[in-house]
């Protein structure tokens, strides 16, 4: 099971801040997970960034034993 | 000394300065960011990733302390709803001499922009829009790598 967190306009588009999912074995990378989740707002992966267990990672990173995956737009703090 | 605060409370610059002046260096450098009223922005909402935000800021502060041998580093970032003119971020460094304090302060604010999970949403006349990333912010962060 993976807790998936969404932030900013990704959260608004998905319609919730987080959910617990159990993806099949063929979901290997963060990009695979995004495709498998299937939300319209996630269609353009060039606009998305991600973190695995609270560490920023590229979308082609393997999920491995990830417990928490966050999907969000590029950050704009400061 | 590393101090990281992410909070909805207003930023007390005098209080943070006092913390930095107490770390025992000969130099303190600070940066304060204010909410701009760009194109009629009436409200700014700051969303963040609780836990990951604090961890990212502590990592950055630790990097600055190690690289410039700082006596102290403070990062305070406000989240939630803000009005133009209000303080959104404060970064301060304490060091034996000015060059380390100034360089580390610039490093912290440049890297904070790209390395910490915050998102800004501007509201203009009732219409809200999420702020997009700026290439210039990436260039500023890259020069410290």
CATH superfamily of chain A: Beta-grasp domain
Order of helices and strands of chain B: EHEEHEEEHEEH
Spatial strand order of the main sheet of chain B: 1-4-6-2
CATH fold assignment of chain B:
Aldehyde Oxidoreductase, domain 3
| Largest inter-chain contact set | A-B, 17 and 29 residues
Largest sheet, strands/sense/barrel of chain A: 5 strands, mixed
Q: Which homologous superfamily in CATH is the superfamily of chain B?
A: Molybdopterin biosynthesis MoaE subunit
- Kindly report how far apart the N and C termini of chain A lie: 34 Å
Counted beta strands of chain A: 5
Radius of gyration of chain A: 11 Å
Helix/strand class of chain B: alpha+beta
In total, how many domains does the architecture of chain A comprise?
Answer: 1
The number of distinct β-strands of chain B equals 8
| Averaged pLDDT of chain A | 97
The ordered H/E elements of chain A are EHEHEEE
Could you describe the 3D structure shown?
The complex is a heterodimer of chains A (78) and B (145). Chain A has helices at residues 8-14, 30-37; strands at 2-6, 18-21, 49-52, 55-57, 68-72. Chain A has a single domain (2-72), classed as Ubiquitin-like (UB roll) (Roll). In chain A, strand 3 (49-52) and strand 4 form a beta hairpin. The mean pLDDT of chain A is 97. Chain A has 78 residues and is of the alpha+beta class. Chain A is globular. Chain B is α+β, with helices and mostly antiparallel strands and 145 residues long. Chain B has one domain (2-142): Molybdopterin biosynthesis MoaE subunit (Aldehyde Oxidoreductase, domain 3). Chain B is built from four helices and eight strands. Chain B has helices at 13-21, 52-68, 98-115, 135-142, and strands at residues 2-7, 27-34, 43-48, 72-78, 80-82, 87-95, 118-124, 127-130. In chain B, the strands form two sheets. Chain B has a four-stranded mixed beta sheet, with helices on both faces. A four-stranded antiparallel beta sheet of chain B has the order 5-3-7-8, with no helix packed on it. In chain B, a hairpin with a 2-residue loop joins strand 7 and strand 8. The two termini of chain B are 23 Å apart. The model of chain B has no long low-confidence stretch (mean pLDDT 96). Chains A and B meet through helix 1 of A and strand 3, helix 2, helix 3 and strand 7 of B.
